Amino acid sequence: MASGFAGTSALADIRIGATVSETGPAAFLGDPEARTLRLLVEKINAAGGVNGEQLKLFLYDDGGDPNKARTFATRLVEDDEVQAIIGGTTTGTSMSIIPIAEEAEIPFISLAGAIEIIDPVKEWVFKTPHTDRMACEKIFADMKKQGYTKIGLISGTDGFGASMRKQCLDVVGGYGIEVVGDESYGPQDADMTPQLTNLKGKPGIQAILNPGFGQGPSIVTRNYAQLGIRLPLYQSHGVASDGFIALAGKDAAEGVRLPGTALLVAGLLPDGDPQKPVVTAYIEDYKGSHGTAPTTFGGYAHDALRIYVDAVKRAGSAEPAAVRDAIEATSGLVGTTGVVTYSPKDHLGLDLSAFRLLEIRNGSWALAE
């Protein structure tokens, strides 16, 4: 289902397409993305639009289904005649949108994590979240700092979990860490006790990492506590939200470490941090509209729209090729996820400094470093 939103103009000049997982198993990601896009479009239009032109948002809910995302992306291009697409809440939906955007030659800014989205670089494709490879590197850097040399993996078999597992296995050796146990679970699994029991029994194991997103990591965390496993537990950036703590339970989640964004710890950032005013303003706007704080995932949509609008301003028009070139020339744009600098060889634009290593303490987020 789609919703057209034109702000103060019935015939908007700049047509932005979006397909996100507003409902379905990835709704905890896609719902705040959809809310954020609507909120920012309204705010931008109320302030006069972009280069004097209004934005019109064509937003579809793909429910996390890659086939629906492909269908909606085609509709956005052929029927709605959009000039750019934002979305692809999940890796699977993003990968299905890519060929549509590439063939139509319009910019696509993905909101999903897998490195495959932008590696190898695709001319019309960019993204805002950190990659799963970067998450692995941030986690392993901390494990090395803690002196861990033998760890276990328990990964989801969904697109995100499988991709992050692959990336972690690819880089782990560079940190002097050995994976002594490697387990997995399906998206519908409701009990990971057998896999965790296997990992717990591995000789010399010092910590466990769970690449995954959705409900799986919450179940892993609860089962971890139920089994009385005392090893440090690391999760992925795919669960960097208050919803994860709520699902896992405050006590079970205590001490869990994961890489996340400045958005989760806005109040803990020093005044000189360049991201502080950006994340603070977004939080205030979102709370004012929805009564709750935004999530990391809403922040991905926030940054995507800001990147697009900034590029349109610099290009002087919404013509797709000119905007694509302007997006690729983005430099030093401060977002909720980090400071973005794209290049012809880098359509992510973030480095490891954009990740904050977080720890759950007393049911809330704290800086772990």
UniProtKB/TrEMBL annotation:
<dbReference type="InterPro" id="IPR000709">
    <property type="entry name" value="Leu_Ile_Val-bd"/>
</dbReference>
<dbReference type="InterPro" id="IPR028082">
    <property type="entry name" value="Peripla_BP_I"/>
</dbReference>
<keyword id="KW-0029">Amino-acid transport</keyword>
<feature type="domain" description="Leucine-binding protein">
    <location>
        <begin position="14"/>
        <end position="348"/>
    </location>
</feature>
<keyword id="KW-0732">Signal</keyword>
<keyword id="KW-0813">Transport</keyword>
<dbReference type="Pfam" id="PF13458">
    <property type="entry name" value="Peripla_BP_6"/>
</dbReference>
<dbReference type="InterPro" id="IPR028081">
    <property type="entry name" value="Leu-bd"/>
</dbReference>
<protein>
    <submittedName>
        <fullName>Branched-chain amino acid transport system substrate-binding protein</fullName>
    </submittedName>
</protein>
<comment type="similarity">
    <text>Belongs to the leucine-binding protein family.</text>
</comment>
<dbReference type="InterPro" id="IPR051010">
    <property type="entry name" value="BCAA_transport"/>
</dbReference>
